Amino acid sequence: MHEMSLALEVCDIARRHVSPEQVASIVEVVVEVGDDAGVVADSLEFWLESMLSSPPFGEAKPVIRRVPGDVLRVSYLEVDDGRPDDRSP
Amino acid sequence: MAVRTIEVRERVMAKNDELAAEVRRLLAAHHVPALNLVSGPGSGKTMLLERTLERLGPEMRIAVVTGDVQTQNDADRLARHTDRLVQAVVTNGACHLDARQVGSALEAIDLADTDLLFIENVGNLVCPASWDLGEAAKVVLFSVTEGEDKPAKYPKMFRESRYCVLTKLDLLPYVPFDLALAEETARGVNPDLKFFHTSARTGEGLDGWFDFLRAQVKASRPA
């Protein structure tokens, strides 16, 4: 049940790691959820899907990684930096 | 589109834990031990506090912060047993207290005029286990009307708690509850857990609980 407040905290952490202009350009938020963290991963993912697709976010997706232990942390963000993909023809 | 990776590696609970550390520093500066009472709904947290305020209120200055999803019924009940302020936190749907709420509640409490603080958390055996409130210890209540396997079903709460108060022992003749099995199950999760066997209705076992609280207060006072 506390996954909603955890999701809010994840969103806050994500916002703090980019400039205000970049928030809408976050495409992935990767969260590590320990098996003993006391967190229902599906529920956290549900809340994150809802929050990360609403302003100020654009269409960011949560990626939940299950790990051993009781860790619960935001691992990294993927951000669209606006440049064309180098691999594009 | 070119995607850039930004390393974060930040614990989700970091902000709460920072606030909890501030609460802990504040309480330590005033030599106030704080106990965070946690349990499922209806296991007797408020009634244990009522008996505690009745008995120990005349000999020590006890402050209480109560957390409820809705209503301040628990705070109103407790206020009948003390002249001191009982600070109610209504979480409006949230299933636990957090350190920010406790820190705010403490602003209304004169800690220089307090010997012991109770935080009565929201009745829930899952969520409050994850939130440090700045307490000295979590005390989990476990009533005999619950199954002996509660510690196995909710291990984090029993792992995070230092003390376990078994409640409603007056109902033992009427319910199929095996005390020894319950303790064994809880110790399987947390071998260091210390137990109190109580009935707030009959008073059974409460003297041990009161002596424990007196010792907590005494140990917190400056030499």
Describe the secondary structure blueprint for this structure:
The complex is a heterodimer of chains A (89) and B (223).
Chain A (H helix, E strand, L loop, with lengths): L2 H14 L9 E9 L6 H12 L8 E7 L4 E9 L9
Parallel strand pairs in A: 1-2
Antiparallel strand pairs in A: 1-3
Helix pairs in contact in A: 1-2
Chain B lengths: L2 E9 L2 H16 L4 E5 L6 H12 L5 E7 L4 H7 L6 E5 L8 H8 L9 E5 L16 E7 L6 H4 L1 H6 L2 E5 L11 H11 L4 E4 L8 H15 L3
Parallel strand pairs in B: 2-5, 2-6, 3-4, 3-5, 6-7, 7-8
Helix pairs in contact in B: 1-4
Structure description:
The complex is a heterodimer of chains A (89) and B (223). Chain A has 89 residues and is of the alpha+beta class. Chain A has one domain (3-79): hypothetical protein PF0899 fold (2-Layer Sandwich). Chain A has helices at residues 3-16, 41-52, and strands spanning 26-34, 61-67, 72-80. A three-stranded mixed beta sheet of chain A has the order 2-1-3, with helices on one face. In chain A, strand 1 (26-34), helix 2 and strand 2 form a beta-alpha-beta unit. Chain A is globular. By secondary structure, chain B is α/β, with parallel strands linked by helices. Chain B has one domain (14-218): P-loop containing nucleotide triphosphate hydrolases (Rossmann fold, 3-Layer(aba) Sandwich). Chain B has eight helices and eight strands, in the order E-H-E-H-E-H-E-H-E-E-H-H-E-H-E-H. A seven-stranded parallel beta sheet of chain B has the order 4-3-5-2-6-7-8, with helices on both faces. In chain B, helix 7 links the parallel strand 7 (163-167) and strand 8. Chain B is globular, with a radius of gyration of 18 Å. Classes of the chains: A alpha+beta (89), B alpha/beta (223). The A-B interface holds A 1-2, 4-6, 9-10, 12-14, 17-18, 27, 31, 36-39, 70-86 and B 1-13, 15-16, 94-96, 98, 124, 126-127, 129-131, 156. Strand 3 of chain A pairs antiparallel with strand 1 of chain B, so a sheet runs across the interface.
